[in-house]
């Protein structure tokens, strides 16, 4: 069942939210540092995108997000991605103000993480691991792929980390595997962003802005679709079973009180 949006006017003054922002900043910084680093370092060995390099980049991004989600989930929820936070906001699972505060933290961390490589000649030559659309594909194809890749990621997040009936103990691993698989599919086409912060950090330092809008619009669309669909279908606020159980409990209490009064 879809939930109503919440503005969250008190969130900027909440210690929990501020700690969450700190965790998002650090986590996103480390993720972009490791993600861009995998592109830069693998490019030193071979600057062509062969199967081995594709696997290195995919594994690095997948395992990086897995360990960092595990490290930050208890503090911030482990979003590390503006698209994920946007999906939470649009589906009513996070207040708007808190989501925007997460955005600021994530983007700042991403810029700093990619900027770490500004003195590396190989990073400059490799555009800091910036995302770009393969010339063999149209903008529409690239947009559609990025949206679907992000849909997969956010759907997995909701199914494992948000849904209380899901396997939350292995959520970081499953989220990391989703990122890994998405990279195997998407790197040859778009670079497999799924994360506007990751794209912005590299683009800012490399100056590579062509089709950059895709890496914002498509992930936000895909994340919103996944969050809304999962929330509407599988996250009822109060299920009919729960309502019936509550009603039965109330009736039992009333009956007990009535019996006590008669006695």
Automatic annotation (TrEMBL):
Subcellular location per the Swiss-Prot or TrEMBL entry: Cell membrane
SUPFAM superfamilies in alphabetical order: Aquaporin-like (SSF81338)
Topology in the lipid bilayer: Multi-pass membrane protein
Coiled coil: none
Keyword annotations from UniProtKB, A to Z: Cell membrane, Membrane, Transmembrane, Transmembrane helix, Transport
Gene3D superfamilies noted in UniProt: Glycerol uptake facilitator protein
GO CC annotations on file: membrane; plasma membrane
BP GO annotations: water transport
Signal peptide start-end: none
Pfam families on file: MIP
A GO MF term: water channel activity
Transmembrane as UniProt keyword: yes
Transmembrane segments annotated in the record for this chain: 12-34, 54-75, 96-117, 137-158, 170-193, 213-235
InterPro entries noted in UniProt: Aquaporin-like, Aquaporin_transptr, MIP, MIP_CS
Family (UniProt): Belongs to the MIP/aquaporin (TC 1.A.8) family.
NCBIfam families xrefs: MIP
Alphabetical list of PANTHER family matching this protein: AQUAPORIN TRANSPORTER, MIP17260P
Protein name: Uncharacterized protein
Organism, as annotated: Selaginella moellendorffii
């Amino acid at each position: 069942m879809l939930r109503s949006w919440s503005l969250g006017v008190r969130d900027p003054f909440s210690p929990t939210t501020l700690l969450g922002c700190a965790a998002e900043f650090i986590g996103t910084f480390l993720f972009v540092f490791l993600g861009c680093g995998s592109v830069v370092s693998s490019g030193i060995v071979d600057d062509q995108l062969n199967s081995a390099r594709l696997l290195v980049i995919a594994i690095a991004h997948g395992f990086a997000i897995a360990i960092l989600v595990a490290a930050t989930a208890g503090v911030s929820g482990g979003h590390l991605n503006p698209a994920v936070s946007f999906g939470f906001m649009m589906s009513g699972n996070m207040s708007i103000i808190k989501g925007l505060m997460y955005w600021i933290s994530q983007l700042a961390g991403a810029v700093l993480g990619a900027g770490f490589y500004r003195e590396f000649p190989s990073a400059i030559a490799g555009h800091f691991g910036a995302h770009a659309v393969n010339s063999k594909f149209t903008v529409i194809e690239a947009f559609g792929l990025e949206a679907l890749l992000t849909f997969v990621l956010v759907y997995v997040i909701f199914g494992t980390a948000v849904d209380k009936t899901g396997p939350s103990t292995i959520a970081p691993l499953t989220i990391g595997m989703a990122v890994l698989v998405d990279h195997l599919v998407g790197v040859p086409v778009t670079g497999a962003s799924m994360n506007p912060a990751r794209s912005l950090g590299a683009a800012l330092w490399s100056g590579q802005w062509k089709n950059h809008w895709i890496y914002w619009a498509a992930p936000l669309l895909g994340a919103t679709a996944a969050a809304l669909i999962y929330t509407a279908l599988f996250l009822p606020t109060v299920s009919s079973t729960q309502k019936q159980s509550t009603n039965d409990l109330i009736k039992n209490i009333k009956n007990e009180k009535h019996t006590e009064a008669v006695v």
